[in-house]
Amino acid sequence: MQAKARDKALMTVLGWGVAFLVFFPVLWMALASFKTELDAVATPPKILFHPTLENYVTINERSDYLKFFINSVVESVGATLVCLLLAAPAAYAMAFFPTRKTKDILMWMLSTKMMPAVGVLVPIYLIGIRTHLLDTWAGMIIVFSLMNLPIVVWMLYSFFREVPKEILEAARMDGATPRQQLIELLLPLSLPGIFSTALLSIIICWNEAFWSINLTAANSAPLTQFIASFSSPEGLFWAKLSAASLLAIAPILVFGWLTQKQLVRGLTFGAVK
Asked: How distant, in Å, are the alpha carbons of 124, 199, 207, 213 from that of 144?
């Protein structure tokens, strides 16, 4: 019993230690956001300092935070909804009506995530100009949807495969159409997995910086562009940059904290039978 208690205590300390290491950069950024610029770049770092809200006041005077926030919400949620609408029928077809090419198609879709994003920047930029979708909500939703679609299809495919085929076969014998099977049976049964997939998609879209910085300017710029706007040719103002970064990640951190149970439940969906 003593050995088990000692091992449990050791694993607890190890877990908290790893958690602290992961959270430490966020903590350091939060502290720097309440320092003056001199204190933020002081060497050695100042642990004790007089907190100030000067950085947040300056940020609110220079930028419209609410506009960037709304853009992030609209683009992240919009892209996630588009992904789910496209991925659910595709995952349903591949999970319950597989062919010899199904695994090849899944691997081909996943292989697109291995391609450097900068490799297709110029074509997408030119398409955005020609279609007048550059720096628009619609353009960013399309780009984010294409970016996340392989991951969403793979996740939904794995969740759908956990649903017993006998349930759909019974519904089919009762005269249910494929559309009714998907909407009235499969989606409700896979709801935890769908919810966790949606949460992960929103988080990925929220944190995406490459496409938002290169394809937006003023109208549809999300919070990642908001952070980048405080990097100037004059140099990096660490305190103001930390304050902007904290304002950008705070909503998604709170969102992730509030939905952590649903996320874990969805990711472990079907693990125990």
From this structure: 12, 14, 11, 13
> What is the torsional sign of CA 210, 214, 217, 220?
negative
Strands (E), 126-242: 231-232, 235-236
- The radius of gyration of the chain from alpha carbons, rounded to an integer in Å, stands at 23
Query: What SS3 class is residue 43?
Result: coil
d(CA 199, CA 211): 20
Global pTM value: 0.85
* Residue 203: both structure tokens together: 């988080």
What secondary structure letter does DSSP report for 136? S
Q: Taking a C-beta distance cutoff of 8 angstroms, is the pair 269, 157 a contact?
A: no
172, 189 in Cβ contact below 8 A? no
CA atoms in the 13 A half-sphere facing the CB of 78 = 16
Asked whether the beta carbons of 83 and 148 are under 8 A apart, the reply is yes
Q: Contact, 214 vs 129, CB < 8 A?
A: no
DSSP label of 232? E
Cα gap 218→63, rounded to integer Å = 11
156-210 pLDDT per residue, tens: 998 888 888 888 888 888 788 878 888 888 888 888 888 888 988 999 999 998 9
Bridge partners of 235, per DSSP, are: 232
